[in-house]
Amino acid sequence: MKPSKAAIDALLEGTHADPFSLLGVHGGPKGVFARAILRGATTVEVHDLSDNPLGALKQVDPRGLFEGWIAGSPVPVKYHCRADVGEWWVTDAYSFGPVLGPMDDFLIAQGTHLRLFDKMGAHIVEHQGAKGVHFAVWAPNARIVSVVGDFNDWDPARHSMRRRADIGVWEIFVPDIGEWNAYKYRLIGPGGAILPLKADPFAFASELRPQTASLVATPGKVRWGDERHRAHWASVDPRRQPISIYEVHAGSWNRDPAGWFLSWDRLADELIPYVVELGFTHIEFLPVSEYPYDPSWGYQTTGLYAPSSRFGDPEGFARFVDGAHRAGISVLIDWVPAHFPTDAHGLARFDGTALYEHEDPRLGFHPDWNTAIYNFGRREVASFLVNNALFWAERYHVDGLRVDAVASMLYRDYSRRDGEWIRNKDGGRENWEAVAFLQAMNKAVYGSHAGFMTIAEESTAWPGATLPVHENGLGFGFKWNMGFMHDTLAYMGRDPIHRQYHHDDITFGLTYAFSENFVLPLSHDEVVHGKGSLINKMSGDDWQKFAGLRAYYGLMWGYPGKKLLFMGQEFAQRREWSEARPLDWDLRAAPAHEGVRNLVRDLNRLYREKAALHARDCEAEGFEWLIVDDKANSVFAWLRKAPGAAPVAVISNMTPAIREGYRLPLPHDGGWDEVLNSDAEIYGGTGTGNLGRIIASGGAAEVTLPPLATLMFEWNGR
Questions:
Q1: The whole model's pTM is what?
Q2: CA-to-CA distance for 240 and 120, rounded, in angstroms?
């Protein structure tokens, strides 16, 4: 049956709802018929993929429509086109069958497909004898979807996609294109409106901002050399391992001489050795997924599956992770499932409807960040996010995710006034859909990637954040201890003469220190937006600030919990952090700054080497108060211990007064080696101390406490 004029017009305008029914190669009672849009051609010959001629097509519409009868059976074909300007070949995308199959349909419909990143997005494949790219995108409410790009002059009529009606996925195989082709999706919404061109939600690479097109790319790398590293972490309990995290914003750790971002390869050459030297065990990057706006630091991501183009190609990030692993360093990335920006090319109203978000802004809009909120209760959306977590673990071998803004996900009334939120079905404020999503994500990654960890930035007391899902927990491995950060920094900001009245800023945290598996974070959030750097949070003159910061770091590394320190704070950067400039590396030339750095290095070494300091970080049996109530002197002391390890006593004097002959209770008589003194001259201190050793007798030892300092003593058994 000859198509109507309206159907032909729709084909040529890219608005036909089912272009595969009219374009391509079709068999019938009279033989095989071919029809194609070949703009600019005057004559067209048809060949199969083995170059056998099958016939010729006639132009039936001056806008570039050709058709005709050909020999043989319905097979993929290519067209030899000629015109006054020359000749060229075009392989017919409409002559190929679908790539996705019934099992994909079933799993996608169920929301249980755990390999979506192998199916959705743009994949270089060989299909029915041709090499090319398979595109697939979820847009169930769109009338028509086309893939447009530099390979088809951004013409929507050239590659309108096939709709898989049962699951709302559109797909097409485009032969003869490959890596680094730029593309977007052109969608016509349910009301007939043409939407802004959309980037691919599953894109593995993107153009450098301000450009926003997706790029065809292969994620990860072919050959890895990190087997030993991954096997180690798969064989241990991370709660009982030393974990000291160096938090990094890749765009401002350092810059090249022209002020541009370092590539992943440059970062590998410079950052990895630096982290190894300082003794950190992990690097944690602020979000590395693609994002359009530099001052968002990556937290306004528009490309969850694409490492940012600011730092080179996707394989560059894989090479960085591989290099870090070979050096014994784990790599964590910040992950942002709590919200997404409303940029026109992004996920917002993707197919003309609230697809990834809620329609009602009381559920689907975040007032704090002016962003949309994922609809966690929609199985396709939850699956998209769960697959993303799995993707980073599998394709880039990252060792874990720090999950941003978990509290904002757990509560429907987060940062909202009465009338601005909707209660759950039980009349409460809990977002049970988000809870189910987080549990599903944690079950998926822990169940399929041994050695992987997830860390929740959860600022409330939600019960069981780090309990397994089968015990009704959220299933995270660790949780940031926001209370520790808040209380201890408040304490260190007070004049030492007033600290006696705020003694519980230090002691209170130990009442809940083992209720979750905690990471102690001194994060980027504490050194930006007018909060100042850590050195400037300390009270007193310059000497007191440096001594106080060293004492504080000593207390933190002796405190139960894993450690996290934001970049630049290891050498006491004075200026507040800005994403627009590199760290002030010149400060390292100053002895006071380098002294702090030396202290951080030695603290990490002690933390790694002394099992008492890390092996029971998350268990109450690893901690014992020695001095808890000396408010008058602002002195704190405790014991860190682990089975089979020599105990370590930690004592902090948080005033500038030297205290000689101070009585320190100890559980064992005999010698205790002074393994750390934050007031040592190498760190920029006064050198006041105990000549490397104290002797306990009758359950106590007399010690000299340097001013504003933390000491650590290890029992030597003699």
A1: 0.95
A2: 39
